Amino acid sequence: MYRTMNKLKTTNIIMFLIVSGMFILSCSKKDEITQEEITNAIASKTTIYPFDTLDVPDYNPDWWNDGKGYNTTQSRHNCYAYATNNYYEDISVEGAIPGKISGIYLSHPFSAQDCIDAAVADGLIVLNGEEEPPVGWCKVALFLELEPYNTDGTAASDFHWFRRDKNGYWSNKGGETPVTNLDVNGNPMLDPRESGYYKHTYFVTFMAVKSSTHQGQGQTPVK
After folding, report:
1. Which pLDDT tens digit goes with each residue over 29-42?
2. Is residue 106 a contact partner of residue 115, using CB atoms and an 8 Å limit?
3. Strand pairing of 125-126 and 202-210?
4. Sheet holding 202-210: strands in order across?
5. Is 75 helix (H, G, I), strand (E, B) or coil?
6. How far from 88 is each of 73, 122, 126, 128, 218, CA to CA, in Å?
């Protein structure tokens, strides 16, 4: 009887250890899957282009979008002011033009190089290809609306700028329209060249501007 009891006890212990081991293994496997799912979920919400975010502004459209009307932030700030992250206290200032603060006037029609030179005079720098900006600088993109029948960027009627925010997506503000980071299909923009916008379709170059984490406090003044 004693031996039988010991045998049963030993069997029970072995079974307990086997079941426990299976449970632990099962939990470990579940934890790994859960962690993988979490990692994938996080990855799906972040940009595929890692970059340094020092002094790169957050995406905060509500700060700029206060509606059309006299002396509203939305009405007085255009794409260049937004991309360079400049807010104007002076209500007489509306929009911003590359080169204006540096004494350069873009006469129509102007070329892509004219616009680049004007922006460089303001303090922006040109990036080569997919080059990332220096630490503490914000990446922006220049597009043009070309004159009819022009295809090489030598005759443009208007410019448009995008900026890359801290979340990795690109945003823009056209004239008096609200700030948005959505493309024509309503998806967040990971690349402004694929925005689907129909007007300013000629991509010129990526550039970089000395900006700020805070809205409207860019470190490269323009007007």
Report:
1. 333 444 454 445 44
2. yes
3. antiparallel
4. 125-126, 202-210, 137-146, 156-164, 170-172
5. helix
6. 8, 16, 25, 31, 11
